[in-house]
Amino acid sequence: MSPTTDRTGLEGGVGRIPIMDVQPVVDGGRFPASCVEGETITVGANAFREGHDAMGVHAVLLGPDGAEQRVPLASVNPGLDLWEAEVRPDRIGHWSFRVEAFSAPYESWAHTAEVKIPAGIDVDLVCAEGAKVLARVLTEVEDGTRPRTDAPVVQAALDSLRAPGLPAAARVAPALAADLRALLALRPLREGVTVAGPYRLIVHRRRALYGSWYEFFPRSEGARFDPEQGWVSGTLRTAARSLERIARMGFDVAYLTPIHPIGTTFRKGRNNTLDPRPGDPGSPYAIGSPDGGHEAIHPDLGTLEDFDTFVGRARELGLEVALDIALQCSPDHPWVREHPEWFTVRADGTIAYAENPPKKYQDIYPLSFESDYEGLYAAIRDLLEHWVAHGVTLFRIDNPHTKPVRFWEELLAEFDEKHPEVVFLAEAFTRPTMMHTLGKVGYHQSYTYFTWRETAADLREYLEELVEAAPYMRPSFWPTTHDILTPFMTSGGRRAFALRAILAATLVPTWGIYSGYELVEDVPRPGAQEQIDNEKYEYRPRDFTGALTDGTSLEPLLSDLNRIRREHPALQTLRTIRFHETDDEQVLAFSKHLDAAASGTGALDTVLVISLTAHDRDAWTTVHLDLLALGLDPEEPVAFEVEDLLTGERFTWGPDPYVILSATDRPAHVLRIIHPEES
Ligand SMILES: O=P(O)(O)O[C@H]1O[C@H](CO)[C@@H](O[C@H]2O[C@H](CO)[C@@H](O)[C@H](O)[C@H]2O)[C@H](O)[C@H]1O
């Protein structure tokens, strides 16, 4: 990042026109800001000058192809100094932008003329000053910095200013006319141009921001109990059959927990016990056996060819495949024998098992980056390359916060360079600084604390925090995972599962569920906040069809949510979220609004969600809508139509609708605002 510069100021000083607090800039420019292609982001700065002369501010975006886009910023709080513009970088790659602030002599003159000419003050002097300004505009035409087409309008205005015989108002009229103003608004005459930047901006593909993920253990899909042989594992081929159902529910990403060979040394048994029974398949996160490590496929699941077939089928159905990468090894992993230097050997010759306090992972060794960073880096890069070559386009990275951040910075930069389409999701449930820094160094997405944010106030506060972090961290909301089943979920049954799905799917653009959510699997292992008979340690075939038939499945709701998300680009955004007040502290109201240009559909798109946050009570309450945030005109007598996208009902509402929510039947309204021009 270069300091603010101009021709007259001190190097690194504020420059002729101070430009402060440029956004989006991450840590003063140490890390690039990011967004996705087509996403509307706000470029802003506080820019000001001494005195009262007019000034202007531009943002200049430089695309990956070297093309420049100049966008004027508007003063958004007149009298104060904030200038903003919405920009929409339209292709992936490395962009940059700079902010230019300048004195605007034409605007200063126009203001003087508008005050003095009607009052008959200094008419000749004002006209002479105006003529000087317009003469400079013509000079720019002559030296080629302004198009020739500007000349006739400017010349005519100049001639008029120099015609003393005319009445004063007529004399200045062409110089204040709309056509000349428009031309000079587009290309202002600028003085004292001061530049801040350039600042880096990385544009990722859309899936980095928006997508619906479905997580499952492939070995459970098609697993069966055979009275003779015991449990028979599902395979990639049987799992591929589940893809149709996942696609039918509208998910975009099929996320597979690790698919590699599983060690037998210190294998875990059912319910996280340390004494497995014969036939227990072990945790798929205990990676590596004599059958291979992170590049191999568990023989029970099939072959690499089966994996390719699986990916091919997913693609046919419009799904991308995400793979779980857990950088750790079972004691049986080939790396343990081949690369003892990649593990920390203690004084007694043993290797300590991995931990993520307070959790203990007795069946795995952590990797150590201390003695052969280069070698380990190359091995990890190669294994990721291997899966990219086999069609994986997203990686869910297990516990990235237990590896050096510098390692991720280097690795993610390399992938960004070679495979900008590949998206990395950080599974770092840890301290905020670590989570934020992982985003800053290149992670595209992050798991979040959503799972533990339950009240309306907490959710609102958390979303506000996430929006602030949006230039470098994109949240992914999961109501449960294979490791997390909170008391809220275990105490609320179907009501809790429905409610949290609605919130996760509408609050942020990326959400995901862990298989079995449809069936409301809500029984915890005593003393733990995760499921009993957890699939991590055993096979878990499920009867999804039966649940659909008997009407207990949440599949219809999940399908509706994903459909609504697809049909409403507003729900594919994070930064647009606005909150509305409600008279019930357990009711959360928020909306997302896109104008016609930003929605990509040519029409406004506004979605308003009014949701319970508690699962054990109903609510009758008034909501106080911020009409501007909904794209409605607060000055007009307001009655507008809304359509509930979950039920199809229509209501005519005013600014303070009274709503009735029921934890059992209607935990939330997910509404489309029908704008007057549509009805
Ligand atoms: O540490 P987290 O809670 O973020 O969970 C993730 O990482 C764990 C370690 O990979 C993983 O834990 C599972 O696998 C371990 C290794 O086989 C095993 O010891 C644990 O009992 C088991 O829960 C967890 O699944 C993953 O999401």
TrEMBL record:
Keywords, ordered alphabetically: Carbohydrate metabolism, Glycosyltransferase, Transferase
Positions of the catalytic residues: 398, 427
Binding site for alpha-maltose 1-phosphate: 268, 328, 363, 399, 536-537
Matching InterPro entries: GH, GH13_cat_dom, GlgE, GLGE_C, GlgE_dom_N/S, Glyco_hydro_b, Ig-like_fold
EC number, UniProt record: 2.4.99.16
Domain Glycosyl hydrolase family 13 catalytic: 211-546
UniProt GO molecular function: glycosyltransferase activity
Substrates-to-products reaction catalysed: alpha-maltose 1-phosphate + [(1->4)-alpha-D-glucosyl](n) = [(1->4)-alpha-D-glucosyl](n+2) + phosphate
Keyword GTP-binding: no
Region of interest: Disordered: 267-292
Site (Transition state stabilizer): 483
Its job: Maltosyltransferase that uses maltose 1-phosphate (M1P) as the sugar donor to elongate linear or branched alpha-(1->4)-glucans. Is involved in a branched alpha-glucan biosynthetic pathway from trehalose, together with TreS, Mak and GlgB.
PANTHER family cross-referenced by the UniProt entry: ALPHA-1,4-GLUCAN:MALTOSE-1-PHOSPHATE MALTOSYLTRANSFERASE, GLYCOSYL HYDROLASE FAMILY 13 CATALYTIC DOMAIN-CONTAINING PROTEIN
Family per similarity comment: Belongs to the glycosyl hydrolase 13 family. GlgE subfamily.
Subunit structure: Homodimer.
Protein name, per record: Alpha-1,4-glucan:maltose-1-phosphate maltosyltransferase
